[in-house]
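Hi P.,

Sorry for the delay on this. The queue was packed all week, but I finally got your sequence through. Input first:
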Amino acid sequence: MWWNHQNMDKPIKTKDGLIWEFAVWHEMVNGVHQQKIYFWDQAKKVAGMMELNEPVHRNKLKDKMKKVATDKNFRDKYTCELKFPIEKNYY
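Then the structure:
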């Protein structure tokens, strides 16, 4: 299920003016709670997905999203090619 409330889909603008978009998915798979944070820059040149296999409180998810937006080394760990639109291609 897409988590599109509580500002989980709100873009994050960095100090250098870049805008990062996010989509968060959460579900139970074989009794394991999974959360996925999809991210991309506004130009869709950089994109990726972070998969979390344990429940993470929404405040901690937001912290991870901010870190993706502001920390290139952290973001690079999760960078991968994504197909757009996210909500249609990943569920």
